[in-house]
Amino acid sequence: MDFESELIPGLLIKRYKRFFVDIKIKNKIITAHCPNTGSMEGLLIKKNKVWISKSNNPKRKLKYTLQIIEDKGNKVGVNTHLTNKIFEEALRDDKLKEFKNNFVIKPEVKYGSDTRFDFLLTKDNYKAFIEVKNVTLSRSRKIAEFPDSVTTRGAKHLNNLLKASQEGYKIYIAYVVQREDCNKFSVAKDIDPEYFELLTKAINNNLNVICYDCKFSRKGIKLNKILKFYN
Questions:
Q1: Which of 52, 125, 35, 132 is nearest to 87 (CA)?
Q2: Which of the residues in the chain have pLDDT under 70?
């Protein structure tokens, strides 16, 4: 997944009202859009290095978007709007060992009255739903965690994946860790114990969990290697 324009470096000043972040670029402070509604725990430290993009859309009120925050020397992708693009690119380029059968791939597929799953894969009689989650949290060395705050939306997705399984769908949840410094993934039980219990139940009822980290470059972000999952 390539960025639409070259990223601009800066320093974090503060985040506020969830969607706004002030950033110092050279000798001026600009306000950028923060495309992440989570707590972003451990990342919002004043004077952390950041990288932002500038939009060419003249209708946008905020011309800049926060893309990356540096955490202890490691880049962390915080734009949750890019997560599905990163995953879909790897899926279509046949980079995922779990899906190598030339499936028909449909993004954003409606299920039930109130849910859209990120991807539907079909081929012959095979059908599978994949729900993708963005991961930025790392509180312990080499361990990525999800969620970084209570996620009622995540719980709803798990419940609906279980319903889909009963209707004959294969079900997957994919955790995309937008970091390079972790080799393990775990659920943050202390942050959202209900999500932990529900995920455990889903795993015992045919949910498949996959987890990859990401590789950063000047051009963009790509899915990289499999992380070990501990529940």
A1: 132
A2: none
Question: Cα dist. 40→17, 140, 153, 197 in Å?
Answer: 13, 15, 17, 23
Kindly give, in sequence order, each residue whose CB lies less than 8 Å from that of residue 103, ignoring residues fewer than 6 positions away.
121, 122, 123, 126, 128
Give the pLDDT confidence score for residue 209 in this predicted structure. Answer: 98
Token pair for 41: 């725990």
Place of tokens 């390539």: 2
pLDDT digits (tens, 9 = 90+) for 159-192: 999 999 999 999 999 999 999 999 999 999 999 9
Q: Which CATH architecture has domain 8-77?
A: Beta Barrel (2.40)
The CATH code for residues 80-230 is: 3.40.1350.60
> So where are the chain's domains?
8-77, 80-230
Measured CA to CA, the distance from residue 187 to residue 230 in angstroms comes to 8
Dist CA 231 CA 160 (whole Å): 20
| Distance in angstroms (rounded) separating the CA atoms of residues 105 and 128 | 10
The predicted model scores a pTM of 0.95
Residues 20, 25, 27, 33, Cα dihedral to 10° = -20
Q: Distance between CA 128 and CA 130 in Å, rounded?
A: 7
